[in-house]
Design brief:
The chain has 227 residues and is an alpha+beta fold. 44% of the residues lie in helices and 27% in strands. It has a domain of 143 residues. A hairpin with a 5-residue loop joins strand 2 and strand 3. Helix 2 crosses helix 3 and helix 3 packs across helix 4.
Amino acid sequence: MTLINEKYDYTALSRKEVNGSRKYLTPDGTAVASVTTILGETSDKSHLVAWRNRVGHKKAQEITTEAAGVGTRMHKYLEDYIVTGEWPTPGSNPYAIKAHAMAEKIRDNAMVDIDEIWGTEVALYVPKIYAGTTDLVGQYKGNAAICDFKQTNKPKKLEWVQDYFLQLVMYGMAHNEVHGTNIREGHVFMCSRDLEYQQFDVWPDEWDEWCHEAWNRVHSYYTKQGA
């Protein structure tokens, strides 16, 4: 039985290529940039460039590709659990087994505090500005919240996850805009390859500050695009 309480009518969004860039098509027919594109195009990539130079571009690509595969599997296990109410089995693939263990860690540490799930893999948008897909919308310890699942090769420091906070508030603002809610908190549930669980939170008293920074990044992105 699904764990989802279909409280809101979520609209699936399609994607299209626009001048070589993938964009979301919103219900009014406007093609808008994704949250991840906006944040990616306006972030400081110096640390990423330094890491690629240090380990070598070929090795860096191998690490990135493997991490993406494990992350996709981990997300799928959690999504299947939310949709069906049954905990999936991993099979014999070693990457699947690792991803399954990571998903289990998130289930045991984070999902126990999710009181209600309104949707998973929910497409959200601010008309004519941006769109994206969040892993979970619902209630965390009684409060409406945006939640995202993340995998990492090694545990993160707080200063490394600032864009995750911006991602959360951008999804929250979109949900509030279209569905008339008042979401003011977000949570990142993260597990490392060594099965260390971390949680990073945006609380109501800091929500507006992160929203202000998110709009600065949106403005910066569209300024760079010449819009």
